[in-house]
């Protein structure tokens, strides 16, 4: 068992088999630095719970493929990323910090799926980005590839 | 058998400006990506997002690394649109590095062909295989016709989403353009230089591997009129250099007039051509040379093959030979990856087709010889995706259909003219569909942008870089030359220091009293002595008169060494490699890299961009012995070492590591090394 400590001083016990999916912790364990509690100063407990949930589910990736639990895992992944933008970004940052490749992929794909068919305005709204391009610049880009800006599938709603 | 599933897709009708082609979608050829369920956020989550001003969202949105990671997952079309979100997004998405990464990433994910161009001279019409691409593609098609500006496009060929346009000018000359349909950028491929004999350019073929998007080529095949030989030249679109193959294909010897008339097929680092009569040909881009390639046999009693289709799909080369007669049963051959031979991948039986489409059947009672087919069809292309879902795109009189070899379903894609049997044979079949003008464009999403990310090199820069490389700049300590200088010193010893015991010994026993000034080497002397005496030639070389040697007061090996080696200026970057705390192998690689040899050492000719600026920056800012500078130097060495190691692991072990993983590794190693230095300092 490995003890992880979030930035709000809560400790979590995780099985070593689960936690070594994180490259960072794996390296720490290999280097023998993980004898006591591992402090994770950039991750709050809410996010850490999410990450641990993911790690526990994905504990034996290879086995799942053999026993036909792949669909189960897929379903879990789908459920897992069903969260708010903020939460998702927290998980992305945590996954990046802990260096968990699969989780990073999963979350980035989910974020990309949300942005995929959105209009520019909707994307700005969703991510709270202010437009600092001048109108001429914007028009130039649109003229460069007009076909990217039109189409029935472009969704202008923010959700 | 015909799926006319109107429930899944609404019919849409498209009549082009000429009214030639009518495309009606009676199906939905949905992609995997399309069917992936999109999960809308629950209303609770929406409230949450709006309630908090989402600190981490802003953090992510303002952090390039995370943003890039997310944007890489988006399709090209979205990216082009999202460029207008903000300046930051624009700079990320339009950067060549990002585009390279995106192209490479998508090269692995999907290999599906999204549609094809039908050539009905003089117009090109796009036929989309998927409905979702339709609106986008028809707009691309408009642009496609706008770039030719009234010129005649003779041929179009595509390679993984990039186009090569063969445009005929009004004075009969031909121009070739690379054209990126996705971005609308295009570039002229210049005529091959240094051809000073009458020639005829037969084809221009693109060789673009999405795995290596920064390095792509055009292969030009030209016929030397006097020698009746086919010659080959490769143009690198990233460096702008023509390479001419020293080999040529002799048409007198092998025949094959039709060889290279059609566009070749790029696959596996080589361009492949088939011929109806001659052996097939493979031309490797990398070493600019021919290789043999398995050829299908010509049926006995015939003098030619009847190749219906030759192309690449799903990472394999496929060939359909209809000999002896255009029958409704034929084999689809696939080439073994190791070029050991062709094997039958599918056996296709289309005997049921004429029942469904009576228009295929020849109903004339006594047709003239040239129309004496019992029924006709033409294979436009064969598509196979990763999951071995195989489809044949067939053209029948008046129809284009897609036949799924797996579930034997037929989908009608388009109605085309002409509808009559005779017209099909001498009209559409030979005019429109059969010539590889309508090669499928595969996975256009791959080629987000290559053209403006590469080759802004002017001629002057090019000459400066290629013709006068800074070869004299070297810190290399030449041991062999040093040894010669050291032997020179021994010679001086024998001349100038006759009081020394070993010199006297040499004179007594080995030279038997011969005066050394005679400079002829005694045959009886031992090998060592001979070597020493032969050292006079080194003095000659260094510009020192041998007769002066004995008169020298002192002798400096270093001076002789320098004379022998020649004077080189000290390189300005010596402080980077000397006393660098990094591991020796890092420094070795760093030195190679500074010399610009690292890439050529591993067989890459192209220069890295902005490397010199990088180095001069480092030289200016990281020369002193502050800890920061020291760490930076180590980091530089470590980074280069690890990048190279990753390259090796990809090439030799076909193992990939994520960039993040490598970066972490570098940080760890540098950390450990720096910590060691810290410890020893205290």
UniProtKB/TrEMBL annotation, chain A:
Residues 1-59 form the SKP1 component POZ domain. Pathway: Protein modification; protein ubiquitination. Residues 102-148 form the SKP1 component dimerisation domain. GO terms for molecular function: cullin family protein binding. Keywords: Ubl conjugation pathway. SUPFAM superfamilies: POZ domain (SSF54695), Skp1 dimerisation domain-like (SSF81382). One of its GO terms (cellular component) is cytoplasm. InterPro entries: SKP1, SKP1-like, SKP1-like_dim_sf, SKP1/BTB/POZ_sf, Skp1_comp_dimer, Skp1_comp_POZ. GO terms for biological process: jasmonic acid mediated signaling pathway; protein ubiquitination; SCF-dependent proteasomal ubiquitin-dependent protein catabolic process. The keyword Zinc does not apply. Part of a SCF (SKP1-cullin-F-box) protein ligase complex. Involved in ubiquitination and subsequent proteasomal degradation of target proteins. Together with CUL1, RBX1 and a F-box protein, it forms a SCF E3 ubiquitin ligase complex. The functional specificity of this complex depends on the type of F-box protein. In the SCF complex, it serves as an adapter that links the F-box protein to CUL1. Belongs to the SKP1 family. This is SKP1-like protein. It comes from Capsicum annuum (Capsicum pepper).
UniProtKB/TrEMBL annotation, chain B:
It comes from the Eukaryota. It holds the Pfam family F-box. SUPFAM superfamilies: F-box domain. Residues 64-99 form the F-box domain. This is F-box domain-containing protein. It comes from Capsicum annuum. The lineage of its organism: Eukaryota, Viridiplantae, Streptophyta, Embryophyta, Tracheophyta.
């Amino acid at each position: 068992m490995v003890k992880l400590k979030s930035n709000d001083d809560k400790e979590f016990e995780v099985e070593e088999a689960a936690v070594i999916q994180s490259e960072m912790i794996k390296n720490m364990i290999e280097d023998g630095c993980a004898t006591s509690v591992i402090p994770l100063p950039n991750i709050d407990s809410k996010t850490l719970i999410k990450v641990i949930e993911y790690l526990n589910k994905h504990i034996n990736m290879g086995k799942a493929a053999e026993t036909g639990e792949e669909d189960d895992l897929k379903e879990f992944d789908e459920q897992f990323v069903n969260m708010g933008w903020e939460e998702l970004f927290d998980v992305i940052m945590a996954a990046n910090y802990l260096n968990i490749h699969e989780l990073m992929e999963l979350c980035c794909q989910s974020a990309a799926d949300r942005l995929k068919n959105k209009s520019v305005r909707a994307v700005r709204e969703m991510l709270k980005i202010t437009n600092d391009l001048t109108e001429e610049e914007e028009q130039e880009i649109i003229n460069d590839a007009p076909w990217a800006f039109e189409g029935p599938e472009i969704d202008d709603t923010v959700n | 058998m015909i799926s006319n599933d109107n429930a899944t897709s609404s019919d849409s009708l498209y009549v082009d400006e000429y009214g030639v082609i009518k495309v009606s979608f009676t199906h939905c050829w949905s992609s995997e990506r399309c069917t992936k369920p999109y999960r809308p956020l629950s209303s609770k989550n929406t409230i949450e997002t709006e309630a908090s001003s989402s600190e981490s969202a802003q953090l992510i949105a303002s952090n390039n690394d995370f943003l890039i990671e997310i944007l890489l997952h988006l399709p090209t079309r979205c990216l082009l649109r999202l460029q207008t979100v903000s300046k930051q997004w624009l700079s990320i998405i339009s950067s060549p590095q990002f585009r390279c990464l995106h192209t490479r990433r998508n090269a692995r994910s999907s290999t599906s062909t999204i549609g094809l161009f039908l050539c009905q001279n003089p117009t090109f019409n796009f036929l989309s295989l998927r409905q979702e691409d339709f609106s986008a593609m028809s707009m691309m098609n408009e642009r496609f016709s706008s770039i030719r500006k009234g010129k005649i496009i003779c041929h179009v060929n595509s390679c993984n989403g990039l186009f090569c346009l063969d445009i005929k000018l009004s004075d009969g000359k031909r121009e070739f353009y690379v054209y990126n349909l996705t971005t609308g950028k295009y570039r002229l491929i210049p005529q091959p230089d240094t051809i000073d004999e009458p020639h005829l350019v037969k084809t221009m073929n693109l060789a673009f591997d999405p795995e290596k998007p920064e390095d792509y080529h055009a292969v030009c095949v030209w016929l030397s009129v006097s020698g009746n030989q086919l010659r080959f030249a490769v143009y690198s679109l990233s460096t702008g250099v023509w390479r001419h193959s020293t080999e040529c294909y002799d048409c007198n010897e092998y025949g094959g007039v039709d060889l290279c008339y059609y566009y070749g097929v790029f696959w596996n680092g080589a361009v492949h051509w088939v011929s109806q009569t001659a052996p097939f040909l493979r031309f490797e881009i990398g070493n600019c040379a021919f290789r043999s390639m398995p050829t299908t046999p010509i049926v006995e009693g015939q003098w030619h093959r009847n190749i219906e289709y030759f192309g690449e799909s799903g990472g394999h080369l496929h060939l359909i030979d209809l000999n002896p007669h255009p029958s409704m049963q034929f084999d689809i051959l696939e080439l073994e990856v190791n070029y050991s031979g062709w094997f039958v991948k599918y056996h296709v039986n289309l005997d049921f087709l004429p029942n469904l489409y009576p228009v295929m059947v020849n109903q004339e009672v006594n047709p003239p010889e040239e129309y004496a087919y019992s029924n006709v069809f033409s294979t436009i292309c064969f598509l196979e995706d990763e999951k071995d879902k195989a489809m044949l795109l067939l053209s029948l009189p008046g129809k284009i259909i897609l036949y799924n070899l797996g579930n034997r379903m037929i989908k009608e894609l388009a109605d085309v003219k002409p509808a009559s049997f005779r017209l099909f044979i001498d009209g559409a079949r030979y005019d429109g569909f059969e010539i590889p003008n309508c090669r499928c464009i595969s996975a256009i999403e791959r080629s987000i942008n290559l053209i403006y990310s590469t080759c802004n090199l002017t001629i002057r820069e090019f000459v400066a870089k290629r013709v006068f490389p800074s070869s004299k700049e070297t810190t290399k300590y030449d041991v062999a030359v040093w040894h010669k200088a050291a032997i020179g010193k021994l010679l001086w010893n024998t001349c100038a220091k006759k009081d020394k015991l070993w010199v006297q010994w040499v004179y007594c026993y080995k030279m038997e009293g011969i005066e050394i000034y005679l400079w002829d080497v005694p045959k009886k002397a031992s090998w060592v002595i001979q070597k020493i005496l032969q050292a006079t030639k080194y003095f000659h070389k260094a510009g020192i008169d041998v007769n002066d040697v004995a008169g020298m007061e002192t002798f400096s090996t270093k001076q002789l060494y320098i004379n022998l080696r020649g004077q080189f200026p000290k390189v300005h970057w010596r402080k980077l490699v000397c006393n660098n705390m990094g591991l020796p192998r890092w420094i070795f690689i760093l030195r190679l890299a500074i010399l610009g040899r690292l890439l050529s050492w591993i067989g890459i000719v192209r220069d890295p961009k902005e490397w010199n600026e990088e180095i001069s920056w480092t030289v200016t800012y990281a020369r002193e012995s502050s800890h920061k500078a020291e760490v930076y130097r180590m980091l530089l060495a470590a980074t280069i070492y690890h990048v190279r190691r990753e390259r090796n692991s990809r090439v030799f072990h076909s193992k990939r590591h994520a960039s993040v993983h490598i970066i972490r590794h570098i940080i760890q190693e540098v950390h450990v090394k720096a910590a060691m230095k810290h410890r020893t300092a205290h």
